[in-house]
Amino acid sequence: MVKFAPLSVPWERRLQTFVVLQWIFSFVVLAQICIAVFIGLLFTRFWIFSVLYAVWWYLDLSKPWRGGRRSEALRRCIIWRYMKDYFPILLVKTAHLDPSRNYLAGFHPHGVLATGAFTNLCTESTGFSSLFPGIRPHLMMLNLWFWTPFFRDYIMSGGLVPVDKESAAHILSREGGGNLMAIIVGGVQEALDSRPGGYKLVLRNRKGFIRLALMHGAALVPIFSFGENDVFKQVENSPGSWVRWFQDRLQKIVRVSIPLFYGRGVFQYSFGLMPYRRPITTVVGKPIEVQKTPHPSQEEVDRLHQRYMKELENLFEAHKLKYNVPRDQHLEIC
């Protein structure tokens, strides 16, 4: 039976729903619309707009790999406060980050749409700059989206940068420090296993970010987002199912996989693509000091990786009871 939303919903909650709806829209179809508009304008009397943008795009081609183009006005826009309050989302600081240093943060888990990562690191709605003064956060995203006209400029404005070595090197080697580059380590593979109450991480064989930290002497910061997996459900896609086979094949071909997620609707609570109103608490852990090693050996990478996993587990265990995780629940690291 469909459970409809009451007619007397306060305007504050209606605005929260609208802002999250536009974010879902942006995440799911905005890139495709931007491509269609760019190509479509070429066949109209407004073709000059696409041509001018193409010239700008060519001149600006390397910008995403050079730290992007942040817009503090967009990051601090009031709409993100409504998005934060929808769940709500909270950012928790457990240790000081020295603004004279550069940091490489591992963000866990991915969740379906990386809601906590985006809200905390690409907007100021949870007060990142107030909690960590002098630190500029960057969040890494699949390179594919930075080759999309118009959309690339939108995502760069929030501090998103491509997930590759060139982009990482530019940020982590900046003189003067004050940069935090976050990588959602589990990526799209981890997203496929995101389910309410689940704490399965794809991390055991993900060591590229560890090598980057050693090469640039960037302190490692573990970040865990409690509740990230609770805001959406997924169609059953257990390993061996035809759904999972299709998702894995798609990931191998285009490096993008699509979680078949669902939640609630806008005017009813029974089904739809809107996330559930469930709290997300993102806890930033204590930095792990890293000695700069331009050419780290595999042994050095493995040793630091083991320490990172241990610190992440300690962070999870130290905070889980505060955020409604059962005492007997532990991280499952694959």
TrEMBL record:
Classification via PANTHER family = 2-ACYLGLYCEROL O-ACYLTRANSFERASE 2, DIACYLGLYCEROL O-ACYLTRANSFERASE
Annotated compartments:
Endoplasmic reticulum membrane
Give the organism the record lists.
Answer: Capra hircus
Q: Which family does it belong to?
A: Belongs to the diacylglycerol acyltransferase family.
Q: What is the protein's name according to its record?
A: Acyltransferase
What are the record keywords, sorted? Acyltransferase, Endoplasmic reticulum, Lipid biosynthesis, Lipid metabolism, Membrane, Transferase, Transmembrane, Transmembrane helix
Query: Which gene is the coding source of this polypeptide chain?
Result: LOC102172465
Q: What are its E.C. numbers?
A: 2.3.1.-
Tell whether Nucleotide-binding is among the UniProt keywords.
no
Q: Provide the transmembrane region boundaries.
A: 20-39
Q: Name one GO molecular function term.
A: 2-acylglycerol O-acyltransferase activity
